[in-house]
Amino acid sequence: MHYPGGVHAVAGIDLEVAAGEFMFLLGPSGSGKTTTLRMIAGFTRPTSGDIELAGRRVNDVPSYRRDIGMVFQRYALFPHLNVTDNVGFGLKMRHSPTRDRPHRVAEALALVRLQGLEDRYPHQLSGGQQQRVALARALAYRPSLLLLDEPLANLDRRLRDEMRLELKRIQREMGTTMLFVTHDQEEALTLGDRIAVMHNGRIEQVGTPVDIYRCPATRFVASFIGDMNFLPGAVCGDAVGGTSPARLTAGGPVQQVSGHFAPGTKITACTRPENVCVNVPARAASYIGTVRYVGFAGDCIRYVVCLDDGTEIQARESADESRSLFSIGDRVAVEWKERALRALPE
Question: What angle do CA 333, 337, 343 make, to 5 degrees?
Fold first, then answer.
């Protein structure tokens, strides 16, 4: 998708969403997520390429004939209509049989657990209730595909957590194919069957939440999803069994990193903070540094350790009462769990 002036909002993507799947488009602002969603919905015409729904090319099909539901970030409820009429609006516009509409509306409201609020108007509802009305309206006519454009962004954290659980429940009960746009990593990791990570109008990686988190394919995915430590280095021997021996510029012995690379290849080894252990220095310790930050977060303790070569390492450990806390300025040793280093090519 190209805009005037040579702006490439979406620079050529290839994505297939399976029937009944809960797929997420995840990426920072400006990565092309919403433009992709708008092209699928029929609000924006692609400048090249094809969009297919159930095997049918729909580039020239108007949005109201695509059998697609849409839930917007700002809900887009009609203030002069009550809950029943808001939910039934889509049925009316699609000329659904009049006799079927009350049942469809009641069914959708029950699905989002809003029974008893049928006569209320949007200004009489909480933010979470308004979001449920918008969701019920999109589900009432049973679309084959439901598009959601950051629908939880305007809710406070507690409501957002509640709505996440409700969305997952509804998706499982209905079996509706859902495509959800967000820049919230937690949202995508906890709800998605699969995630497509977007950056600069392209898809960097598609995979399950576990794959995306544990096995990032690029430096961008590794840095965008969660916290990550990066250690530059080079492979110093032949790869065996899916791992390569590497010596990291942070010093210390040869480390085994996941990935098959030729000797001499420059790499960046990465590992999550939860894979890093902070201990009292010992003579045999390979990586020594000074604690620069300590953060107690209830169930875990976060450390930032500056190694003697200047490399900063983040660690996240369980807040076990049997473990003593280190303080800022303490000299400590850091080490990684076995097979916790994943290598990315420079």
Answer: 105
